[in-house]
Amino acid sequence: MHCGEVRLPGLTARLFRISFSGEHAYELAVPARYGEALFRDLCARAETMGGCAYGMEALNVLRIEKGFITHAEIHGRVTAFDIGLQGLMAQKDCIGRAAAQRPGLLGAEREQMVGLMPVDPLQAISAGAFVFAQGASAQRDNAQGYVTSVCWSVTLSSHLGLGFLRDGRARYGQELRLVDHLCGVDTVVRVVDPVFFDKEGTRARG
Amino acid sequence: MVSLIAKHALSGQAPLALQDLHFQIEDLGPITSIAPFNGQESALNAVLEAGHGLRFPVPNTSTQQAVAKLLWSGRGQAFLVGVAPDARLAAHAAVTDQSDGWVTLGLEGARAEAVLARLVAVDLRLTACPVGASLRAQVQHIPALIHRAAPQVFHIMVMRSFGQSAWHEVSEAMRGVAAR
After folding, report:
1. Which of A14, B81, B129, B178 is the most exposed place for a label (fewest CB within 10 A)?
2. Domain-by-domain residue ranges, chain A?
3. Which of B1, B8, B101 lies closest to A41 in CB terms?
4. pTM to 2 decimal places
């Protein structure tokens, strides 16, 4: 998360060590007039080295594998506790800290972010599906959580989902019923840590 | 990487001349926004005077010293154009390079006011908008900074990503006026 000024031939740029994908990554900011030339140059270099530009869909898969949140998860009804970032507020006071510790915003009653893996890895799951105890009927008042993001992970050869589940962090390993009435999905998923891949973060830290 | 090729937002756009109306891309040089910190207005003015021979403009106006201009650009903010900012300004104001964030279009001609009257809901006649005026208004729906550089010359500054749209709007209005 460091940044600083760097020199490129003929100009000054800003380099940010920042990763949205979980991979070793940088952001490079140049005056807008040089943007197109820089993009073309970086693409040519990446292709020469066997890489390429990648798009939003690939980025979405990478960040789900890594358990990184995006707008799908932080949709306005979740707290730092829910997404597992309560540690950021543990040491120091900050704006919103007192509010975040009010009754009802912490603890087992909260729907907490979890990873969901279908027991059959080839079974697609869908964002928007709800999660129920196995054997429970798939109706509103039995819902224990919901799915926010899904992808097919080439790395793990499985469909993956991120979602929120009541007391989810205490329930890793449990198998639950996932139902999406709209898409006709009714399957069994296993609750896992939302960081599916590279839990130690060694790739981003290069 | 030998060097990066610089490319203007309106790269390849030729000037447009219709009768007495002329429309072209302007290069104002560096553009730097200057927003004084609370209570620092006097100290900032002292540095502006010493470094650039300029004073911070009151709303809807600008100040000028040779090629350096300070264009009022919003509440508590002005754009220094034409010169690089004196480093001492940063002690008294938020100083931000905006050079590549803006596209400046120059419209010149006796009927420039008539062209802009079709696009801008502000009275831009010389009596209401004297030379040196610098104001925020929309060109159609595009937020712009409009500066009257001379009796028959307007500089229309829009954010870079709106450059093509602003060129289109103004050139269409020019054609309308020229056809009358």
Report:
1. A14
2. 3-53, 63-192
3. B1
4. 0.81
